[in-house]
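Reader question, answered in our methods column.
A reader sent in the components of a multi-part assembly and asked whether the whole thing could be modeled at once rather than chain by chain. We filled in our standard form and ran it. Here is what they sent:
COMPLEX SIZE: two components
ENTRIES:
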Amino acid sequence: MKEQRQLIMLPGPTNVPNRTIRAMMKPMINHRGPEFQALYESIMENLKYVFQTRNEVFVLTSSGTGSIECAVGNVVNPGDKVVVPVFGFFSQRLKETVIRRGARVIEIPVEWGHSPTAEQIEQVLARESNVKAVAIVHNETSTGVTVRDLPKIGKITKENNVPLIVDAISILGGDKLPVDDWNIDICIAGSQKCLACPPGVVVVSVSDKIWEVIEKNDTRPYYFDLVRARESSAEKATPFTPALPIFYALDEGLKIIREEGLENRFERHATCARAFYSGFEALSLTSYPTRHVRSNTVVAINVPSEVNCDEVRKIMRERYKVIIGSGLGKLEKRTLRVGCMGIISAAEVTATINAFENTLADLNFPVNFGAGIQAARKTFHS
Amino acid sequence: MKEQRQLIMLPGPTNVPNRTIRAMMKPMINHRGPEFQALYESIMENLKYVFQTRNEVFVLTSSGTGSIECAVGNVVNPGDKVVVPVFGFFSQRLKETVIRRGARVIEIPVEWGHSPTAEQIEQVLARESNVKAVAIVHNETSTGVTVRDLPKIGKITKENNVPLIVDAISILGGDKLPVDDWNIDICIAGSQKCLACPPGVVVVSVSDKIWEVIEKNDTRPYYFDLVRARESSAEKATPFTPALPIFYALDEGLKIIREEGLENRFERHATCARAFYSGFEALSLTSYPTRHVRSNTVVAINVPSEVNCDEVRKIMRERYKVIIGSGLGKLEKRTLRVGCMGIISAAEVTATINAFENTLADLNFPVNFGAGIQAARKTFHS
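And here is the structure of the entire assembly that came back:
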């Protein structure tokens, strides 16, 4: 593989700080020995800080999708009813995971680019009895939508005594998400998004009150069994051999978050997202999601029909060394997505807008050259 | 974590060559872009060499146990009959995975330290009808037993038209295992054992003839779905975000194997295992497994009842910086296990025996001091 300096502006994996990369330069250790226990303790402490929780938290060796199977498989049994709002590619995947589990999905269909609302959840719970769980994607990575009603939804599910499962894969560590205050029973996230670590592990928080449901479930998955994870956790270990280098990286990544402070980190993400949206708008490109539910961690923009998305991405990559994401599913040819995660700062935002402006000019698309960068800059200096 | 030079003589994770560790020092890349495709191609080619197969092979982000769930979940449905020989801790785990899947286990119970035989498999298949699969651990990491009858078992399952699932987690790359010649339908292994990579991914080979069974299975697991893995593989990608640093390491680790050559590598493991057994025997310690089924990758020895295993491991770790494995399950206080994997050479074997001799002396155990090292040395010079 040819090495070159690239800016990875994907909605994950994202750029990983050198400090975190270097943390992986350690030799292997016994995953049941004292060195690992110390590492585990450090990760647990900082992870609880990031989740803003007193719940038990876990780190599992898996991609993000595995964590969804973990959450669903531990709580939901075949035949159960699960409420799932579907408003993009990843909420569709969540729905499929529930179906594959043999459960029945009560779908709340939402137009892509919009967010499910607390009212919708409330209505469904009023209508349906014996709902086993509400499972919701908090940040729909495919459409750039954040469910801003999540705290209200958490109140409603709590009042109805229905467990709330939240897929926060692409948002934890990048925007406000106090798991306990918002009454989230299971919250999952990936290492390679706003935590700015390499992919390879997922993090999971589990509320005290949902343990009863999990323990009663006798068809829990084997690899993703949370009861087993809890037993191992008591000995400061993982149930199965952990991806050690990613654990080393996660430990460092969490320390970086703690040093910065969550509030500062959220503010930085929000400012960079505003700068992205301003920059794109100044180039006459509109945001895909409706304004009030725009994500601070994934920026999705509409692309005029005369512009070929694949070509834009190819030129940005080859000429300007900036990698951005394509649209997903039905948005493949209509949107582009930019990650606004982890180490994101004015430098990455302006470098991305700069590469984008250049690319549009290369494609002879009439562009108000410089307007994007100017608008983005203004955000940082206002 | 305090850094110190340690010799990790566990039955996995094992010592990882610096070259492989350094391979992880690369920035993140787009897991759906051309750089990843090149990496994927390179891994696939060398992985087929290691599996000695023309089958399709896959790399999944998971611990070894996840690969067992993958193999079982894709082939076996609830209610199916599966033949599982149980002769140690990990074959017990395989059995549990099958049961958790809702299938019925036809257990072949085998005394620990011994190996299931081809005759036993033949008898069960003659007696039982509608067997969905034979699932067998090839190298029982808990007892140090390798199933030397595996090629015969592969012939029998083929003749009976029953799929053969082989857990080769702790042996692939360390001993002979020609997947196609031995008629293995699904073969799984971990990155952190004889491939000498960090933990975090598993490798899977899938025979042409078992795809029909897998495709028909409509309750395949979601995260570990092999049909989905095959679809992504056609585009030189993984179905879900891969643990990139471990993929970088695996690529390097497989290149190292290719440079050495499989035959040389197997010979090296076999010689080192012989040296270990000779060394321990010269110290009057006996091997736990019966002689003809001793593993070349995991060495398990009986410990006299007057010796405290935990104390031995603690002294070896703290005074001599050599980490060896404890016994598992009912062998916890009766055996010690030493990994003979990956970069294993005369240096690691003698360093381990040396530390062990010193430890026994420290514990005032009457030991023929120097006899172990002498015997081990002789193996390398004969």
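What stands out: Chain B has two domains: 7-11+262-381, 18-260. Residues 46 and 254 of chain B are 6 Å apart (CA to CA).
Send us your own complexes using the same form.
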